[in-house]
Amino acid sequence: MPVWLTDSEYRSLSAACDRMIPPGDGRPGAADAGVPDYIDHLLGAFCFDPPRIWAGGPVSGRHGGEPGFGDFHRLGPLDELAWRMRIEGSSGHPEREFNGPVVGLQQRFRDGLAALGADFCDVTPEEQDARLRRDPEFGALVYRHACEGMYGAPEYGGNRDGAGWRAIGFAGDVQPRGWSDDEVSRP
Amino acid sequence: MTVDAVIVGSGPGGSTAADILTAAGWTVVVFEKGRNHLLDPDDLTRPAAEFSNDEIKFLHRHFLGPDPLVEPRTFRTHTGDGDRIHVGEVNSIPSTVGGGGTHADGKVPRFRPDDFALASTYGPQEGADVADWPLSYDDLEPYYAEVERSIGVAGLAGSNPFAGPRSTPFPMPPGPPMYGALLSTAAAERLGYHPYPAPTAANSVPYDGRPACNNCGFCARFGCPIHAKGDPVAMLRRAMATGRAELRAETFVSAIRFRGSRATGVTFVGPDGVEHTMGARAVVLAAGAVESPRLLLLSGLAHPLVGRYLMTHFQTAAVGALPRPLHADRGRTVTHLHDDMLVGDHASAAAAAAGGLPWMRGGMVEHGGAAMPVLEAQRYPWGEAHWEGMLDSPIRRRLWVLTMQGEDLASPTNTVDLDPGIRDARGFPVARITYRPHRHELVASAHYGPRLTAILEEMGAEWTLVATSPGLASGRGETSVAIPESRHVMGTLRMGSDPETSVVDAAGRLHRFENVVVADSSVFPSSSGYGPTLTLAALAARAAHLMAGTGPASPPPPEAVTGPTPINLGRARTPL
After folding, report:
1. Nearest to B188 by CA among B386, B404, B40
2. Does A77 sit within 8 Å of B250, measured CB to CB?
3. Which of A105, B254, B318, B474 fits a 20 to 30 Å CA distance from B175?
4. Would you state the CATH architecture of domain B2-47+58-560?
5. Distance (Å) from the C-alpha of residue A55 to the closest C-alpha of chain B?
6. Who among A148, A169, A179 is closest to B374 (CB)?
7. What is the pLDDT of residue B572?
8. What is this structure's pTM?
């Protein structure tokens, strides 16, 4: 169940992300790796307490130590204002319009997904690509976040079980293990 | 409430001042407009546990601030652009407890002796105000030595033939060289350059109660999860441990209050959004070269020199893809430098003359590499090309980068002032940056770019390219490339002995208000081509000692100094 997107928006977003980071050759596509969840959790960050903006520290537990990434940071008053502006937009709140109105990510995703068409999941891959290229600004927005979801820490909802990192041979967060001097200096 | 000193800003300058003033018995309050992610909120004498190997929060979600939605800046290249051509992120050095020290990869070289005497050594340049500093390298040397010890700097004395004289060895030996740096420094040496292990504010051995760096690779632009980077957590912890320092995070100083020829205190807005005042016998201004002049302007201190001579470093980056992986995601981001391109030679003198310049200087060159995977992925097209890029990984796994931090001449038309129309979320006018490079920087970049590329080719690169920041297309109205990327910002409250041509004196005091001391890179009369952090910390230390009537601490006895170890000389010719 998506947190903020509707079920049909979530399906369209999954299909779009899979065109951008497609599955194949034993590699996960964006949808299998949880990228739509990453984006949904960002759009719905304020459905959680604390809001899912900044994962905790200092280590994830994947390389030892007590897992801390799952304990998201509390936001200060200015942080909350910034992230509500970024996600929800100014939405008519005067305290968010000190430099004019702001369009939030929620509206940009909602409008962009609607413009892909209600039949987006059912058309051919070529047609899906064509529709994604019709609005380059929205395409870039989706791809930017798809990359974050694919290769960001799994605690944000994407990169499921480190699938994105595994596909490219990236170790991800390595504290508290780090790398030995030899691993730094040798080929 | 009245304290001995209010310190505005908790970065390397403010923290250094707090350390020295509290050690001398002063009570201080350190104001920081950003969040505290650095010190344990339950025990401010200890590091917090909030930094992590997390690309999302550090590189994509403004964890260290400032968030450009609530604290924007504006930009234009010159007054002919109108009020501004951009609103948002402009050179946003972190706004957080620890300031710029938190995100830097801790490359902290000293300046060279001639950096302090630019005008008398090299002479004037048309369109720039080239100046000498009102103090010399020798005047600053004891303070360089002191802040190297208090921060904890790893390096190898004698490895850089162009370095100024040192009274003491580095407190720690260099950390391990990155594999790519072994290749690039060997190539550079074959071409006649003189690379050396970068003086680095990351522990190579346990130091000052903090662990040795374990090479995690999340270094430049990341807070250190194990606090192996000493800058400025070491100074802040010490200051807090005296019991004479109070840290007020999420608190914005909106004005310095003046009466007659003295400051009487500050006005500030706390996390509650309410304006308060605090009295102080002295004010230390250490908010950085953009925010410090902004605060003086917000305080009503309009003066033609406040905010003038903004300098950054003109970055010329040669990038190359090697045929095999370099795993540049391990280690300290940059482990070696060379200074040959700051010092110059016959060829650079000839290039300057051909470019119509009396002289020119490049900058230190950083040997480093690596992008994080999200940043890398965002640079490839989507679709199958995504996987072609990510699997071959020319701009992450196989990438090496030589970045020259080119000296930026002080142009009177490059300024920080208050934007007439854009405000921050607290309601105050934001800083407007007006900046474009002088021809000196463009000529130097054009000369040295191909020479950087030649090192990468000698190293075995399959392809290379040169990028600059500001971009060379910046004259053609492309806004994003016109904004300088370098987080080295300097020069907006110039130091000098003549009140007609400078804002602060050689002790960092405002000429007009003797109890206001500027302790950040605002005071630099010239930018050199080295990172500014160690020099601004040394100046802050000197200014704080002059305030307190104390002198730099003596070095520890020789047996306490860890000598260089034979295994980590960090030179390319060291057998592995």
Report:
1. B404
2. yes
3. B318
4. 3-Layer(bba) Sandwich (3.50)
5. 7
6. A148
7. 33
8. 0.95
